[in-house]
Specification:
The structure is a single chain. This protein is of the alpha+beta class. The chain has two domains: 116 residues, Glutamine synthetase, N-terminal domain (Ubiquitin-like (UB roll), Roll); 335 residues, Glutamine synthetase/guanido kinase, catalytic domain (Creatine Kinase, Chain A, domain 2). Helix content is 38%, strand content 19%. It contains 15 helices and 16 strands. The strands form two sheets. Strands 7, 8, 9, 10, 11, 12, 13, 14, 15 and 16 form a ten-stranded mixed sheet that branches. Strands 1, 2, 3, 4, 5 and 6 form a six-stranded mixed sheet that branches. A hairpin with a 5-residue loop joins β1 and β2. The longest helix is centred in the middle third of the chain and has 21 residues.
């Protein structure tokens, strides 16, 4: 950033700060998401936004080797007490937080003290992959589905319940799965979430009760990949804040109660060449174009390695089970909710705008910037290799004979984090795309988490991660 650019950023941020101050905003939360999937923050007084925009906010690179329990590990290129980075708030995404009066929020890009891009910045990685696609004439649209469990915030004085006071798995509502009763029970809460997201210009497309006790889901409109990851962070932060204001507590963990259906973080995506959707209007399966099919074939082939990125916690593998609509098998199918790669054509007549793919095996312990960047990377690799999709799978793969699955080339996705890590370690495409600093620090955190939970039971793993996400 040269002197003129720094001055312009400071001036623009000063104007924004003046408007925020007039609206009663006193602080700006500047966030990034680490390799453990946790959103970290450095906050500045609103009056200091200009300086933060021009010079950044200091933060240690050691955050890239924080583990889910806040212990620290190390990697070859990242770790230890030395060094410093600068968090540069993205002023284009800065927004007042409707459920946190007095606060605004902006995601950060991280740069070095020498004013160079930090190679282990996850948001920077996502942006690099967007540019790599653009260099091929392609753009992506993406959106995360956000599922969460809501229960009484006992520390904050939630509603009384007959269960013991130390049981933090009590749902805040008792209605059935997908039931209107559940929405009636938490009507004011749900309306507050919709209102807050609307005030923050987040376009909500669906809001509904989900399958598990006390579980809800919100789906937002598709956006460019970096914005989609930003939205995933903002949506969760907003739900947490609204929950607190209603005496409730939200968990986005892969499992809240071991043995029950968990929270997903499904990713929807479509790929475009100018105004043309590559997932519609072609001669391939269900209208896929040649490049669209190759992209999905690349994703399908890379799913075992992608599992370490999109299902990155030990707890993820308590969720990723067959016959639970979690996408436990590496296969694809039109509207098949048991396939890890679900292809969605849309209603007849809407295919050109509606056709997209859904990656169902991912959850919200993942860093969304790493997810979108990794998905683009392997999708582009599939296009370059001109891959073709294997036969479609209909129905539940878990109910098919092993011989039939073998004939279709269908395999179970990794059943543990160590298994997923081994696939990621062998992915030349993802190592090259992420770069050594990011790739190795991410793996270091994943290995540390394996060690952290090596002797824990499923119930202990669920309890230890329940309120971390």
């Amino acid at each position: 950033m040269n002197e003129r650019e720094r001055s312009e950023r400071a001036s623009r941020a000063g104007r924004i700060a003046a408007g925020l101050t007039a609206d009663g905003v006193r602080g700006v939360a500047v966030t990034w998401v680490d390799n453990a999937g946790l959103t970290r923050v450095k906050a500045v007084p609103t009056a200091m936004l200009g300086r933060a925009a021009a010079w950044g906010v200091g933060a240690s690179p050691a955050f890239d080797v924080f583990v889910v329990d806040d212990s620290m590990t190390a990697s070859r290129l990242v770790g230890g007490p030395g060094g410093d980075l600068r968090l540069l708030p993205d002023l284009d995404r800065l927004v007042g937080l409707a459920a946190q009066p007095g606060w605004a929020w902006a995601p950060a890009d991280r740069v070095t003290q020498d004013d160079e891009a930090y190679p282990a910045c996850q948001r920077g990685f996502a942006a690099r992959m967007v540019e790599a696609a653009r260099a091929r004439g392609l753009t992506f649209r993406m959106a995360f589905e956000v599922e969460w469990f809501v229960g009484p915030d006992r520390a904050g004085g939630g509603e009384p319940d007959a269960r013991p006071p130390d049981d933090d798995t009590v749902p805040a509502c008792r209605g059935p799965a997908y039931g209107m009763t559940r929405l009636v029970e938490l009507s004011d809460y749900a309306a507050h979430i919709l209102s807050a997201l609307g005030q923050q210009d987040v376009a909500v497309e669906q809001f509904h009760p989900e399958y598990a006790p006390g579980q809800f889901e919100v789906s937002v409109a598709a956006a460019d990949p970096v914005s989609a990851a930003d939205d995933a962070v903002l949506v969760r932060q907003t739900i947490q804040a609204v929950s607190r204001r209603h005496g409730l507590r939200a968990s986005f963990a892969p499992v809240v109660v071991a043995g029950q259906v968990g929270n997903g973080g499904h990713l929807h995506l479509s790929a475009w060449d100018g105004p043309r959707n590559l997932f519609a209007g072609g001669s391939g399966p269900y209208g896929l174009t040649g490049r669209g099919e190759s992209m999905l074939a690349g994703l399908l082939d890379a799913l075992p390695a992608l599992s370490a990125v999109g299902s990155p916690s030990v707890a993820s593998y308590l969720r990723l089970l067959p016959s639970r609509w979690a996408g436990a098998y590496a296969c694809w199918g039109r509207e098949n909710r048991e396939a890890a790669l679900r292809f969605i054509t849309g209603t007849i007549g809407s295919e050109s705008s509606a056709a997209n793919a859904e990656l169902k095996s991912f959850d919200l312990s993942a860093n969304p910037y790493l997810v979108v960047g990794a998905v683009i990377a392997v999708g582009l690799a599939g296009v370059d290799a001109r891959r073709q999709l294997p036969p479609e799978v209909t129905g539940d793969p878990a109910r098919k004979p092993a011989a039939e699955l073998d004939s279709l080339g269908v395999r179970r996705l990794p059943q543990s984090l160590p298994e997923a890590i081994s696939h990621l370690e062998g992915s030349d495409d993802l190592r090259a795309a992420m770069g050594d600093a990011l790739f190795e620090s991410f793996l270091a955190v994943r290995r540390a988490e394996v060690g952290l939970f090596a002797d824990r039971t499923p119930e202990e793993i669920a309890a230890a991660t329940r309120w971390r996400f």
